Amino acid sequence: MSAFLTLLAALVATGACAYHRTSLRTWAIATVATTLVVGLLTGAWVTMIVLLVIELLIAVPLLMPAFRRRRISAPLLKMFARATPTLSATEQDVPSTKNRCTKAGKS
Predict the structure, then answer these.
(1) How far apart are CA 10 and CA 31, in angstroms?
(2) pTM of the predicted model, to two decimals?
(3) What is the pLDDT, as a whole number, of residue 57?
């Protein structure tokens, strides 16, 4: 039961941070603190250690902006760029036509 409470507390902290749209740093601090406090109070040492390791493995790389941009964001953006269809000639022409029409209408 104490292992379940520790896991539930970490999930509640994560959910509260997501609901309030806190920063990544605030999420990491809140989740680690909650896991530590509930884990120590309930005596769920193994669950607490496992959750802390998982949380730190997720949070530490994300909290380093240069690493995150180079190793996480850049590959994901490349993957999305390949998955996104290219604009047809007609679709590319629409914004330029719209700009011409609005400029012509204002003149």
Answers:
(1) 6
(2) 0.68
(3) 95
